[in-house]
Amino acid sequence: MFDDVPLLPPDPILGLLSRFRADPRTDKIDLGVGVYQDEEGRTPVMRAVQEAESRLLLTQTTKTYQGIAGDPEFNERMLAMLLGPEHPALRDGRVRGVQTPGGCGALRIGAEVIRRARPAARVWVSSPTWANHMPLIGGSGLELVEYPYYDPVTRGVDFDAMMSALANVPAGDVVLLHGCCHNPTGADLDLAQWRELTALTLSTGFTPYIDTAYQGLADGVEEDVAGLRHMMAAVPECVLAASCSKNFGIYRERAGGVYFLARNTERADAVLSNAMAAARQIYSMPPAHGAAVVSGILGDAALRADWLQELGEVRARINAMRELLATRLAGNAAGTDFGFVRRQKGMFSFLGITPAQVTRLREEFGVYMLDSTRINVAGITPRNIEPLAAALHAVLAGSRA
Ligand code: LMR
């Protein structure tokens, strides 16, 4: 049976995390996997999460099966957070969806439903996109193709190239968009660009598939989803995948959801039945705990306010580290202007250094980032910024430590 099974290479992101953990150096710096770290380099349990978990322990009376779609209250509260409670798509009853095991589960169920609806649909993904989009979505059998997105010269979105390419996407194909905090580049569309893209969607007829894993980590919980809310108020159909891993800091609890906007309530019900059938075929029902915590926070005014407060602190810390890194890299020997780090959004930025420099940073200085040069800005702390900046200056100068 297993004689010819090949040994696969480690996952590009989680494999790097294993390498980091195995590195015995105590002064190593983790800018790899997209996990928030506080000033002390810890990934804390958020205050509201801790409180919601305590309440859950005291009040939970059963561990019996949930429904395939998970907790209806969680789905309702997630949609209100994502779209705003007064969103026209919700008012018209055109959105249905399921709670999923994290954002990955959401993306996969979304892809499974698209494949059931239209097996020949191609999914257009930004170049570059999150490394796991390809196996997650492609694993459902759908074909993936790339559209231009990031301009390494301006370090921002090449919006003209993106729009020109998407203008040729046929109706029936799907375009994957990052709701905010583009992973891996940190280069986001602004609201005016979301509006233009929405108009293009309406004229060409492709279906948007929006992955939103970082709501609240760029400018604010409401601000970060203004673009997708606009789009979903205008288009007839859309898929929205959401993760609670980052904004609630519950990475290991695997809570997320995938929501489908359909032309009318009857189509929405049909799509939901397919999402539930797909979930049943893969994992039957999502794990309950993380979603119960999120639902508990979103449904309680005081817990919600505290969560928003702490999320604001997380955001402010990331932005302060962006500022610090850009400042500390000024005047580097390579003459690179790292001011773009200030403009980019969310956890990630692309440093745009060479693969040899990435390797040297890891091997010589214990600084871990993805081979693509993506850094997790949330891995920078006031404590590691000096050695980090020194290491970056050294590799940029091409000198030995
Ligand atoms: C990341 O991009 O680092 C995170 O989304 C974690 C992951 O699963 O890859």
| CATH-defined architecture of the largest domain | 3-Layer(aba) Sandwich
Q: If strands are numbered along the chain, what order do they take across the biggest sheet?
A: 2-10-9-8-7-3-4
Largest sheet: 7 strands, mixed
Specify the overall morphology. Answer: globular
Task: Explain what this protein looks like in three dimensions.
- It is a single chain.
- This protein has helices at 14-22, 47-59, 72-83, 88-91, 102-117, 133-138, 159-166, 191-204, 226-234, 265-282, 289-298, 301-328, 340-343, 355-365, 385-397, and strands at 29-30, 95-100, 122-127, 143-148, 150-151, 156-157, 174-178, 207-212, 238-243, 256-261, 348-350, 367-368, 374-376.
- By secondary structure, it is of the alpha/beta class.
- It folds into two domains: 12-45 and 315-397, Alpha-Beta Complex (Aspartate Aminotransferase, domain 1), CATH 3.90.1150; 65-299, Aspartate Aminotransferase, domain 2.
- It has a seven-stranded mixed sheet with strand order 2-10-9-8-7-3-4, with helices on both faces. It has a two-stranded parallel sheet with strand order 1-12.
- Helix 3 (72-83) packs across helix 11 (289-298) and helix 8 (191-204) runs parallel beside helix 9 (226-234).
- It is globular.
- The model has no long low-confidence stretch (mean pLDDT 96).
- (2S)-2-hydroxybutanedioic acid binds next to loops.
